[in-house]
């Protein structure tokens, strides 16, 4: 495991914030490195995440800059100053995409996604929902993953479920994301689609019961 992983719990000194896009790339590169090596598929996933919205040359340069950093723990520390909940949710979505890029999620990757998410103030159940979000797109999805994506227990009443979805939608609304950049807008739109899908699965499951 690299020094970023080993020193994560030792970092307490405040550091200045950086640009949201650079924070995202910083987090993605850390995730690619946290199991001790970097898979080319993980780097490709980072590039693909931004390919539709950002200059690819600039993204590759930023990735290379963070990969070459002699102090990855310093880069990771910037994540403690992510300003908005919506930004944090997008960051977790990117971390999961990078971790999954090589075909699976290792125990180390899941552990660090949970740790980083906790440091960002995201409840573990919501992070678990992100880890399993792809499962709600199966032909016969398990409602358990839909509840997890919304961060709610399975016995939640339908009105509370609807309110939860609306609250998350407000956090991810386009006007908030546009201030952070086009990559955030696109990622947030993907999250919103997942939320709609999750609610549809829950409603259908309750109708069939």
Going by helix content, strand content and strand pairing, the class is mainly alpha
User: What's the number of helices?
Assistant: 12
Order of helices and strands: HHHHHHHHHHHH
Kindly give the count of domains: 1
Quick one: how many beta strands? 0
General form: globular
Portion in strands = under 5%
Instruction: State the share of residues found in helices, binned by percent.
Output: 55-70%
The chain-level mean pLDDT equals 77
Main pleated-sheet profile: none
Q: What is the oligomeric state here?
A: single chain
Intertermini distance: 47 Å
What does the radius of gyration come to? 17 Å
What are the low-pLDDT stretches, counting only 5+ consecutive residues below 50?
A: 1-18
Report a brief summary of the structure.
This protein has 209 residues and is an all-alpha fold. It has helices at 3-7, 20-33, 40-51, 56-67, 72-77, 85-100, 107-119, 124-131, 143-150, 158-171, 174-178, 182-208.
Question: What report would you give on this structure?
Answer:
- This protein is mainly alpha-helical.
- The chain has one domain (3-208).
- Helices cover 67% and strands 0% of the residues.
- It has twelve helices and no strands.
- It has helices spanning 3-7, 20-33, 40-51, 56-67, 72-77, 85-100, 107-119, 124-131, 143-150, 158-171, 174-178, 182-208.
- The longest helix is centred in the C-terminal third of the chain and has 27 residues, at 182-208.
- The radius of gyration is 17 Å and the shape is globular.
- The model is unreliable at 1-18 (pLDDT under 50).
